[in-house]
Amino acid sequence: MPLIIMPALLPDWLNPDPWLTRARNTDTRAVQQALATECPGIAELAALLSPVAGEALERLAARAQLITHRQFGRTISLYVPLYLSDFCKNGCIYCGFAADRRRSRRRLERDDIIVEMDALKAMGFEEILLLTGERTLHADFDYVRASVALAAERFDLVAVEVFPMTHEEYHILAEVGCTGMTMYQETYDPVVYERMHRWGPKRDYQYRLETPARALAAGLRTAGLGTLLGLADPVRDALALFQHVQTLRKQYWRAGISVSFPRIRPQLGGFTPPFLVSDRFLVQVICAFRICMPDLPLILSTREPALFRDGIAGIGISKMSIASRTTVGGYHDGGAADDGQFKVNDNRSIEAFCTMLKSKELEPVFKNWDAVYRDIAQSA
Ligand code: SF4
Asked: Whose CA is nearest to atom 5 of ligand 1?
């Protein structure tokens, strides 16, 4: 069993507690100052995550919307996830794919992958996120590498949300066309992390924490971070996430860092999160991040219901998934949208979603990068 990191062994940059205290003791004046500051940082983030700031949510939203339109225009980038395999040997308590869930498991074979990718391409997507569970004999590095290569022949942007890899493995992935990776820390609280990850390689908190940096050092262009809101104190996790982003941005200033805000959804296993994350608080977190990191792409998935997604699109969020399946495959034959890793909450078609965006004068963007640049970057 991997060694579990003790709080005292956390890296120097990860220390959200002083800021958590500040968030709890913020007054109206500090919130006003945070909203007026030219270059906000973590002190301002703490103020904007406070209960007092929650009472001024409309002001936060107005400021966040202004910044989003200034930085990203009136656009929402779209991407789609493709689950390649649901085999897993981890015991994440909140996940429908955990090893102890009684379900039939499968992986997509080469021909299935091509059919699914071609179906997604026909829908107009130019950006794809490939997902698996933990590294297993069914879905190992070679399987992911071959899948990335197939995706790179079809899509301009190919990211993976799979198991943590070594520097060498990320380097090989970059060479076959992988442009980015996503790895949520789930929670930055090491004690809660240990409780939520009952067994398996994922229990190694520190290795996971270091994974985005390892991927960027190996040549991937983008890294997506996030915490699973509800596992631990969401204010503390949001502050720690901000510190993680700041650290990566300093070290890998040419890389693109993005952040997602997943909330726990009902799943096989029936786990109920210990912390309730209300719609209002989720909006507050998104707006606070937008105000304090104006150019950071902020992502919202179909975990959230249509009404919530419609409301927050363009206010702080700049990128969204749509038409998602959280089961393995299912795109070319219109398979079940539910009963996968978690229950999808927004089942609209691409057309319906784009119509909604346009009604809010937002432009859906399927392509904001061309594969030709990827090839140039690799040969440089
Ligand atoms: S969250 Fe990922 S690693 Fe954990 S059980 Fe689910 S698929 Fe496996």
From this structure: 98
pLDDT in tens, 212-260: 999 999 999 999 999 999 999 999 999 999 999 999 999 999 999 999 9
Beta carbon of 90 within 6 Å of any ligand 1 atom: yes
Reply yes or no on domain 56-379 having CATH 3.40.47.10. no
Domain extent listing, the chain: 56-379
d(CA 91, CA 200) in angstroms, rounded, equals 6
Instruction: Tell me the best of 92, 205, 342 to mutate to test the pocket of ligand 1, counting ligand atoms within 8 Å of each CB and taking the most.
Output: 92
pLDDT digits (tens, 9 = 90+) for 81-97: 999 999 999 999 999 89
| Ligand 1 binding pocket includes 88 (Cβ within 6 Å) | yes
